[in-house]
């Protein structure tokens, strides 16, 4: 009988620390060849988009598929969110679906977790780090949460085009993380931050990459289409470029595709996948002055690993509802 977990169930068991641990293992499996990660499949029904993201982690014994739908008329016509995510977790031995869970919160946390893992391997290790956040939405919050797990954070700074959103972010995250979170201008963030997290919906670069100080680590999260980018050519050129997946970066990351089209860099500028850094097959940061850049596109292996984690924790706590959908003839 599949276990049904709603968003509140997922939220009650999923922590950033635990998610970072399983996501790190997922990237290791991807680098080591023990993960199956087919291409994302897209179907376009009338007025909508449906995306299917399957993955199998052999060592972690996690088999899952996330379904993400984007239907623009949902709010007005059906009082539903525009974007809905659902994860189906299967038993790798039998193929049975053993859990159906909300995928919205899971996706948010696993995206933050990837940046947390990248930061742990690529950012400098000062006694205390200053974190700069561009954006003040849900993913920006997950990014700061992950940074607080990855490094000892002394303070954080947030910039958003909406001052009200930035102020709300500051109050909420200061209380959640027991951390000083200041609202700042973009130049102030660039001047002081050791770690930058870019989590906006902007299709254009957020700042002049020449202003980023040496030694900074950047997590690029927001842009995810070939024609959009948060990071300009100057910064990409200056940085050691690491992606969650080379295939994903060259398929959909304008942050690297546009500089290549401009002739500023070649494809060889892509240095490594994150799993290669974690496994040690390629070294990470080479000096305190080096700028490192992690480009996150979001991979189904992250969903599979996190879904299994959520399922196991939900079973331990007796959460969710069992539903019989399969009976033997």
Look at the helices and sheets and give the structural class. Answer: alpha/beta
Distance between the termini: 16 Å
Q: What is the strand tally? A: 16
The name CATH uses for the topology of the largest domain is Rossmann fold
Main sheet attributes: strand count, strand direction, barrel closure: 8 strands, mixed
What's the structural domain tally?
A: 2
Over the alpha carbons, how many angstroms does the gyration radius reach? 20 Å
The CATH class name of the largest domain reads Alpha Beta
Multimer state: single chain
Number of helices: 12
Relevant CATH superfamily of the largest domain:
NAD(P)-binding Rossmann-like Domain
Poorly predicted segments: none
Overall residue-averaged pLDDT value: 96
- CATH architecture call of the largest domain: 3-Layer(aba) Sandwich
Q: Secondary-structure element sequence? A: EHHEEEEHEEHEHEHEHEEHEHHEHEHE
Shape: globular
Fraction of residues in helix: 25-40%
